[in-house]
Specification:
Length: 299
């Protein structure tokens, strides 16, 4: 059964251009479904029947998972069985007649206010003398770049030096579905990046292509970025849970607040659908209403 999952993952990567994040999530979803089938005495994928899929959906409902997680799991199962049918490993899909639960209401993105993101960036490198200077400069450049571009943390850590044009101040980003886009950045991010690259200890570099390196000279991971961010949040005593994707939300919200065209923000973020970007207009409307109600004497 595991061989079929790996073949499916390879097919998704080659034919659909699925990202590493999507592949990891689909593998996990299918493994969980496989364990469920084992518990029902099924010998393999070929023995699965619609009643198994229905029972699994009931099981997911009992777990009270987020609707987005359930939709992804259902999508993984349906896509996997379609793959088995197309490759003639199954005559029909037991998941064909099932739909993921509808999305009743989408949570609005959480973001940081300008003073919060400014303080976070300024303290991201730590206090002088507490960290290696090169790592402090790296951390400052990391969060300058995240806020300046709104790119995903996986896109950030995947950057190579040849994706970077410091003079023209743009980066080439490989996003979801292996789609490439060009994203500009401003002077503060360019200055921080120059400082970091000048301080890099090239003699200790093990991954010379990568822009962002850890202390061992290897490419920085998304998990490491989250840990660095956690440290910066503690230093400024920000009483909020902040994750790297929130900086992406902050970029989009602040751009729209400043009057940026919605389609331009869509291009910057690499969203396939404009409706995904439109979530941020609801955030800005809420902020405007809150400011109005607080400030207008007859609100």
């Amino acid at each position: 059964m595991e061989e079929e999952i790996e073949r499916f993952a390879a097919w998704l990567k080659i034919e659909r251009g699925a990202s590493a994040h999507t592949l990891e999530a689909y593998r996990r979803d299918l493994w969980q479904f496989r364990v469920f089938l084992d518990g029902r005495g099924r010998a393999g994928w070929k023995s699965a029947v619609p009643a198994d899929v229905r029972a699994y959906l009931y099981r997911l409902a009992d777990l009270k998972l987020a609707p987005a997680s359930v939709r992804r799991k259902v999508a993984a199962i349906k896509s996997f069985f379609r793959y088995l049918v197309r490759s003639r490993r199954l005559p029909s899909s037991p998941a064909a007649g099932f739909q993921a639960p509808r999305q009743s209401s989408r949570r609005l993105p959480k973001f940081l206010f300008l003073e919060e993101i400014t303080k976070l960036i300024e303290r991201s490198g730590g206090s002088r003398g507490t960290e290696d200077q090169c790592l402090a400069l790296r951390n400052r450049a990391l969060f300058e770049m995240l806020y300046a571009t709104g790119i995903r943390v996986s896109e950030l850590t995947g950057l190579n030096l040849d994706d970077l044009n410091l003079d023209a101040q743009w980066i080439r980003v490989l996003g979801k579905g292996n789609k490439e886009r060009i994203v500009p950045f401003g002077d503060p991010a360019a200055s921080a990046l120059r400082d970091y690259l000048s301080a890099r200890k090239d003699g200790a570099v093990r991954d010379g292509r990568a822009v962002w390196l850890n202390a061992a000279g290897r490419r920085l991971t998304a998990r490491a970025v989250r840990m660095i961010l956690d440290g910066a949040v503690r230093r400024i005593a920000l009483n909020r849970h902040v994750h790297p994707h929130m900086i992406r939300h902050t970029f989009a919200t602040h751009m729209l607040d400043a009057g940026c065209d919605l389609r331009a923000v869509q291009e910057f973020l690499g969203h396939q659908s404009l409706s995904t970007t439109q979530r941020y207009t609801h955030v800005t409307k809420q902020r405007l209403k809150a400011v109005y109600e607080k400030s207008h004497p007859r609100a």
